Amino acid sequence: MMNIHADVVGSLLRPSYLRQARHDLAAGRIPAAAFKHLEDQAVNEAITQQEEAGLAVLTDGEQRRLSFQSQLPAAVDGFGEWDEDAFLWGDWHGNDHIGDWSRARPSQLGVTGKLRRKRHLSAEEFVYLRGHTRRTPKITLPSPSLWANFWSAQHSTHVYPTLDSFLADVVDILHEEVAELVRLGATYIQLDAPHYPLLLDPQTRAFYESQGWPLEKYLARGIEMDNAVIGHFPGVTFSFHLCRGNQGSRWLVAGGYDLIAKPIFQRIKAQRLMLEYDDERSGGFEPLRDVPEEKTAVLGLVTTKTPRQETVAELTARIHEAAQFIDLERLALSPQCGFATSVMGNAITMADQQYKLGIIVKTAEAIWGS
User: Residue 178: which H helix or E strand, with range?
Assistant: First the structure.
């Protein structure tokens, strides 16, 4: 298992020219080849920014994705009609400056055909990233039970009579993707699982339970599926990211990890737990007691939602507070979530993002020397 104390979650802000190019491509104003060149340019800039910050682990910023999870329906037939709204629905909470925001779940959303992979999900991302940095490339994939959102009793039962039958195919596709990434040389892979903390809120839990699984089954069968995706690949480190929603600097739910900590922390086969902890919405550090000795807790203390400039002193104090419940050497530091969970991005600037990446590295060096 890698022993890196400064980590990243995944997404970075998309430059304005790439967001515009996505619209131009959809409208037929530019050819696909021109768009791919702009994607490459954005990835190159993301790599440079992370390397200049001093990070030993970096991603491609998810510049090629509409959302952190969109590479699955983009690469696989059978998901039916979907667009950006498939990843943005919910009752989102903002601060006084940003404000709240609500969007209904699209009525047409629902898998409509047998899932068939057209191409690999993230092979292009990894191969390009691997070829443009000497540092450790990290690739993110969605947790399989997150896709409960895409099963519909109205649209899906003719092909997948139950949620379980649909998610079984999702697991197979994601495990095959992991195997392909490992074949290509990947040594660090992350599963994004924001739906587990969403179960802390009665309203969002009610939706997920309406799909067919009660809370206990999400925590048992869901983790079983995550572990099936992870499989057994010696020499590969897996991380597991938990957050409470992150779109346009807004969030979905609040609550500590207490209800879900023990089953997730102890049963998931990932070696690194990426935990949102940037404000009081995440509760206290007490659940870190449930992190097994062989795992690292990566504390997401640096917010991606606001331009607030954290300091080394502030972050150091928080990390030592957490070390009351887990050994300091089994802690690491990261952003609380991605900077742009979808192309929308959070209400911060590229300069804010650069500062936050840099302060993570500086704090890790001050505490652990690396």
Answer: helix 163-183
Task: Considering the domain delimited by 16-368, tell me its CATH architecture.
Answer: Alpha-Beta Barrel (3.20)
- According to DSSP, residue 6 is labeled B
Specify the pairing of strand 237-242 against strand 272-276.
parallel
**What pLDDT shows up at residue 98?**
87
Contacts for 135 with CB less than 8 Å, ≥ 6 apart:
50, 51, 55, 56, 57, 58
Q: What is the pTM of this model?
A: 0.96
Residues recorded for the chain: 370
Strands 76-77 and 116-117: antiparallel
Strand partners, 155: none
Among residues 156, 58, 55, which one has the least CA distance to residue 115? 156
CA distance 202 to 147: 19
pLDDT in tens, 222-267: 999 999 999 999 999 999 999 999 989 998 899 999 999 999 999 9
Percentage of the chain exceeding pLDDT 70:
100
Query: What residue ranges do the domains of the chain occupy?
Result: 16-368
